[in-house]
Amino acid sequence: MTFAHPAALWCLAALPVVVAIHFLQRRSQRQIITTLFLLQPWRRESEVGHRFERLRTSLPLLMQLLSVLVLTWLLASPRWAHPEAVQRLAIVLDSSASMTAFRPQAEQAVAEVLSLRLPQVRAELALLVSDPSQPALYHGDSAANLLAALSRWQPDLGVHDFSPALRAGRELVTAQGSLVLVTDHTAPQPLPWQATRVAVGQEMANVGWAGASIEEREGQLHWRALLHNPSRTAQTREWQVEAGTGTSVWQSITLAPGATHALSGPFPPQDELRLRLKPDAFARDDTLPLVRPKPKPLSLHLPAPLMPDGTAELREWMQRLPGFQATSSVAQADLRAFVWPPSVALEDGQHAIVFASPPKGDHPAWLREEIVAETHPLIEGLNWQSLLAAEGMIIPQDEHDRVLLWQGKRPLITLRRTAAGAQQLFCHFDLSRSNALKLPALAILLHRFLTQVRQEKIAPAAANYDTRQRLDLAHERGPNAPALELRTRDSAAPQRLPVAQAHLLRAPSEPCFFEVWQGDRRLLQAAASFADLREADLREASTQNDLTRLSLSQGDTLLRPDPWTALWLLGLLALLLASWWWSRDSAGLQHPATVR
Asked: Are 112 and 24 within one domain?
């Protein structure tokens, strides 16, 4: 048994008050009369006021004491648990990165929610996170084990929708259970799935790194980082650069409210550097690691310009592209670029960019039909309407070639994916007698194609990523391929993913340096940095607690009220009326008098 309103038990304090009142008696008044038959009933009047006398047990006293007990019982509202009642409680933790600033408050809020557990009712407890891709942290009946599972909670997401996690929580607790969301923000609209919000945030000042870039200027590599102050007041912070075993002196900087300041400097000889801020309440954006970018090397084979067939124009244009290494060996080249027909046969395993040879004659006819582009990432958003191409040969096609660009019924650009996995781009027009080299569309198309070829090459690279950014890495495939390993310097055990789950690979959730290996081959050397400005803004963090309403609803759902409440009310009324009636009759009784 439990009470819905335990504070009503304070009504029992009326018992000694009632007893004290009955201790108070009035002193009898002495009156001289002549004869006894003239004695009339009178009320005793006090001569010197109230005084304490010996308690005289009477029926009104017992009725009044019993009335206090019945009234206390009714006000406290006793409840009894159903024989088969189960208290189901699901707690969903906000996985937003901003919750790291309020982790102690969130853990205390979880303990407060668990205090709503009714000891006389069997419980089913669940602890979930708002990241729908993560499993539940705990599901069982032990509050102690649930609190221990809090250590596995890692809030690292950006702004996201809570609905999927709340729906999963509601399915666990059913319609009669309780669903609680622990977050750091409030909102005017109610939560879906009848969830109760417990907000544990408060406005805090924060300054952090908001992103960085690395660029080359005058042959020297420079880093450029943004420092942002989302607070309502001006903030002063100290920052430094750490590279290898050396660090710079702390430098002070003051940022106005909402201001962003750019800092820059030369990249050190080492391949890594780290920008630091002295820590504040939100520590995730106080560190910015960077690595020297190193794209995958891509070797390019270009034929010698021996013929006036557009080869010279192709060589000149391709040599302007950065990140390539020229090679004279066709077999060792990652990519071939030539004018059809090739001097060496094009194999299925070779990536290639192929242009058609010039048409015969000095005055070929120009193509005049409408140009239509297919839907494909390589040519999405490109404008080809100003392309001028002459009639000429069409490079032999394969039945699996995909046409990317049409002019009338004539294909202009096609893409072939060979059985060996190579990509071959065919442009069915010549460069020497068209304006293609002057069009931005062709430059963007070839840049996208070369980027795809570089991405598909299995080779080591170095790059910078955002925290939790998806890592799309070329790797060995097949049933016997080694698993992928993500290694960080702060963790002794690497994260291992089988090849079939390589699409789930993400950068770490904390700013750090990391590497990705497959067997004995390092595929990536990288740094992860936090740059989510919305999560770093703590101005709207606030507090809200609706646990009182939740506790009352739980009692109404799981506990039965006293079935004799109506009878207790009638009994209380009867006791009050009887006490009043008896007291009225007793007031008229005669008392001893002195007769002279």
From this structure: no
Q: Return the closest-CA partner of residue 289 out of 308, 270, 310, 304.
A: 270
CA distance 423 to 131: 37
* 3-state class (DSSP) for residue 63: helix
Same domain, 335 and 419: yes
The torsion angles phi and psi of 387, rounded to 5 degrees, stand at: -70, 130
In tens, the pLDDT along 432-485 reads 888 888 899 998 999 899 999 999 999 999 999 999 999 999 999 988 999 999
Let me know whether 91 and 50 are in one domain. Answer: no
User: Exposure of 297 by Cβ count < 10 A (0-12 exposed, 13-18 middle, 19+ buried)?
Assistant: middle
Phi-psi group of 247: left, alpha or beta (phi > 0 → left; psi -120 to 50 → alpha; rest → beta): beta
Residue 325, token pair as written in the block: 């290494």
Closest by Cα among 375, 370, 382, 367 to 403: 375
430: tokens are 């010549």
136-150 pLDDT, tens digit each: 999 998 999 999 999
Query: What burial class does residue 325 get, using C-beta atoms within 10 Å of its C-beta: 0-12 exposed, 13-18 middle, 19+ buried?
Result: exposed
DSSP state of 341: S
Domain with 397, as residue range(s), is 298-456
Same domain, 497 and 386: no
Give 392-428 pLDDT, tens digit per residue: 888 888 888 999 999 998 999 999 999 888 999 999 9
Q: Rounded distance, CA 223 to CA 270, Å?
A: 13
Q: Are residues 92 and 131 in the same domain?
A: yes
Shared-domain flag, residues 318 and 357: yes
Q: How many residues does the chain have?
A: 596
CB 111 within 8 A of CB 123: no
Domain final residue pick, 397, 424, 456: 456
**How is 489-503 classified by DSSP, letter by letter?**
TT-SSPEEE-GGGGG
- Give CA 270 to chain center in angstroms: 35
- Distance linking the first and last C-alpha atoms of the chain: 65
Buried b (16+ CB within 10 A) or exposed e, 147-168: eebbeebbbbbeeeebeebbeb
Distances (CA, A) of 132 to 92, 93, 127, 500: 11, 11, 13, 21
402: burial class by Cβ within 10 Å (0-12, 13-18, 19+)?
Answer: middle
Of 529, 548, 578, which closes a domain?
529
In a domain, 332, yes or no: yes
Residue 485, SS3? strand
Instruction: Write down the residue that tokens 């870039």 correspond to.
Output: 213
Bridge partner residues of 75 (DSSP): none
CA–CA separation, 251 and 253 (whole Å): 7
pTM of the model: 0.76
Q: How many domains does the chain have?
A: 4
pLDDT at residue 232 above 90?
A: yes
pLDDT value, residue 257: 94
Are 444 and 429 part of one and the same domain? yes
Judge whether 545 lies within some domain.
yes
